[in-house]
Amino acid sequence: MSKRTLGILVLLFVITFYTFGTGFAFFFRFLYALLLLGSIGLTWAWLNLRGMELQLTRISSRGQVGEYLEGRIRVINKNKLPKSWLEVVEFTDLPGYSTGRGVAMVGDQSRTWRTDTYLSKRGKFNVGQVEVTSQDPLGVFHLKRRFLDPVPFIVFPAVEPLPDLDLRFSHLPSDSKTTRPVHQITTDVSAVREYTPGDSFRRIHWPYTAKMNKLMVKEFDLGLSADAWVVVDMQRTSHWAQDDEVNNTEELSVTIAASLISRLVDLSMPVGLAANGDNSYIFRPDTSPEHQGRLLEALAEVQATGTTSLERFLYDLRVQMSRFNTLTVITPSTRTEWIPALNSIRRQGVNVAVVLIDPRDFGGTTNPEFLVDILFANDIATYTVKKDQALNEALSFPVDHPENYLGQMPQTSAQETTA
Prior knowledge:
Immunoglobulin-like, elongated, six-stranded mixed β-sheet, alpha/beta, 18 strands, Rossmann fold, 11 helices, 3 domains, four-stranded antiparallel β-sheet
């Protein structure tokens, strides 16, 4: 309730008290005038919301952090009566959204304007519903009416280009076919040779045998899939934040994952995603055009509220992988319990790597140097990312020695470690 409305109600109460308490004609006239004025104002505000049509036009139902949400709002007055003191605003939970505008129109007139809102946070939001507030000339009555139905709008996480991405993320022995004979029969034929005793009859290439007039058998490639997996640690206890909804380890983890997926897709690699967040997100590697959209949509919605530990999640995910896959784990966790789980996957022939976010830049107190030392000792490629560091620089080369990571630390941290 506004101060003006409260003041009018207090005045009405006082005049009513004196009217029936004294019986003076002046107070009766004053009371009637106030009631008449209030009735006219309420009727004005009510009629302002009648005979209106609203249209909202959007180009897309998806956006990305760093882009703008564009649209056009059109208000049409279908009555002959003029309308004034209208406030039109889109009713949405999108952060930073501001499309409120005062509108006045004569009869049979329409007003159109463009809206541009900067997308600063990933997630799934509701947009499209428009709320119109009408008031009387004195500003005593405020009536609201909502038009249109809300529609979902997804904001994908930011993606940074990675032109210098280290080849360890994508280089696999199965990227190029091998002509080394194998005993098992696969779907990929590398060569045809003459039959030798001991060859299985199932390997005979009958069309070529008829052409050469002698038995010819097929040689096969290994045909191993060059799939890439990106695992994002979204366990609640792994992440840190300094009262900031954007600059925290959760958002940085998602940005790294989205950038890495985008780059691997550009390299024509099948990419899968797994995250132990509010739900268990597991998307097997695929190369279909809509697959990248599904992965980015999952990254837009995932929250760091998971209760499953990273090591438990990796053990459960192990059955999804095969030899010569790549696995990249993105985490700010400095616990060592998940390293044996990563080693068990590596023993399957999976090429593993870790992108470690320095938690001290976000309020964490644990020095990750010892974890880098353990990963280096286990021959696991480790890439470290600090706050506000360019991802292309961070993911170009792994830490080649734990002492080099110590040299990259902030000066104060290095002095504390020395002390």
